[in-house]
Protein 1
Amino acid sequence: MKKQEFLNKLDDLISKVKTGVLTTVDENNRPHTRWMSPIILRKRPGFIFTVTSKTFTKKHEIEENPHTEWMIQSRDLREIMNVRGETTIIENASLRSELLEEISDRLNVFWKLCDNEEDIVVLETAIDEISYYKPMDCLKEKVTF
């Protein structure tokens, strides 16, 4: 697959499953993994977006080490994508509002932990590498950006 095909496949998969697993690394080089609600914005291809709170530990982990990895998988595990990149914390009210409009219905647990919209920041992952797996077909492909 070509780079654009990988990005299209990633967008399709995220649109279907609406969740992904984000891994960050703390100051002791220990990984931390959590479920998130990612989205690809059509006007910003090559990036994965989500939101978090300024008060959550992942924000501080990303500030110290921006290298992150996402895992997006189909519900039946027939398609799995691992996405590596550097994540930036963005404090932009307009972008935050745009993301919340798109994904707020998927943030039930998040709203229980963060009820102050002013604490919400955007996480923007610039995609460096995508690995695509179809385990049932013994297929593995990788592209670097």
Protein 2
Amino acid sequence: MAKSFAIILFALCFLSTLDVSVSKKDHFVIEGKVYCDTCRIQFFTRVSKWMHGAKVKLVCREEEGGSETLAVEAETGKNGEYTIKVDGDHEEEVCEVNLVKSSDDDCAEIPTDGFGHRARVSITANDGITNPVRQANPLGFMKKETLPQCKEVLRELGFDEAGLPV
């Protein structure tokens, strides 16, 4: 009887460790915002507008070789915010949120220089961040023509019309 009890107890302990290892899968949430860069300076100002209905894409690639391991699209809500849910750890990968498509034809240019068109995010539990929610930097589509009040806005921020520090 004692031998049977010991076997059953061992089996229960062993099975409980299996359950823990299976349920320990990592889950992450990537949050960010998309705006219309009305002054074409690649950062948010008081005259920038949050974009509803813009599309972004999270892409993870292997560090070596660059093979794509994950691709998830999302659309922004009324305040320009998006949320992307990701299962699994992507420690050995480079993950970035990229601009895909604007919801405004007058503000649809994706900047090619700088970092206003993509935001790198860490999607691993091994980076010292305990919160599974990861914040991506804001991304901005550029307006075709700058707004008239941009000169004043830039002056307030200490820049000239070209966006250079005064």
Protein 3
Amino acid sequence: MKTTILFKTLILSVLVFSFGLTSCIDPVEEVKIDHFKKMTDYMKANNLDLNHMTSQWTIDAKDVAAAPTNFYIIDLRSAADFATGHIQGAINTTLPNIVEMAKNAGSKPIVVACYTGQTAALGHVALRLSGHPTCKILKWGMSSWAPQFDRWTANISDRALNHANWSTTNAIVPSVNFTLPAFEANDTTGAGILKERVAVMLAKGYAAMSVKAEDVLTTPTNYFINNYWTNTNVNDHGHIKGAYRVNETLTLAADGFKNLDPDATIITYCWTGQTSALVSAYLTVLGYTNAKSIGFGANALINSTLKANKWSAANVGNYPVVTGN
């Protein structure tokens, strides 16, 4: 009986002692990871800044047509449209699968094609951020390859000319500073976080990252608008009222992304919608949750007044196509 009591007393003493030790130990605080900083530090160190996305990134149809089999051409159009006609040697895939498909390129330079060049811009960003620094898009998309593929002509417009919300003088809003975006990721390495964010952007797709020109022009105050032109371009052509102009400084190195409002719907526009789609894709990777591009760019606003990067019938080629899958 005494033995039992002593044993129980001993056990109780051990438990009390253990509890006392445990209660004296401060709880370990989980280290909070700044996923944005971790990823962008990696991007800066590996030449993955925005300016590396826009360097030598387009190729004209005539240059591809001269030797199409010299390129690894990834066609992002629907399987049905691909079957009706595509460039010799082209491979058909979906936007979310583009990084995986690019692994088969071997030593060939990659060219990404779509209907108008705008969806291809998203794929291009994904590839350059995934180890393919020389990939390019087919400028103007398959619209520049043959007349039957033209989806540009029906989308050009002069709707902004004489519109109340188009400023013909340079009244660009001065830049202001905002906080940088924040997001969560499963990985904790810069490379791993970037891979996750690229997948997020690709899954989102072009439709969710684009907006019609007329919608922005009608109610520009609903958006944070960034005119991705030079100051000279703005002087020459004007701009949507209320727009900012963040271009040359829009890099990680220059800390220019602090001039974009992460809580707003960020609308970027350029000449053709191809560069602004690229920028919107990059912003989405960085964690801007509502970055969009004006479809067809200034060509959907002031086409007839443009001096360069202007869509016209002269841009439509008549190059050979292959049918079937």
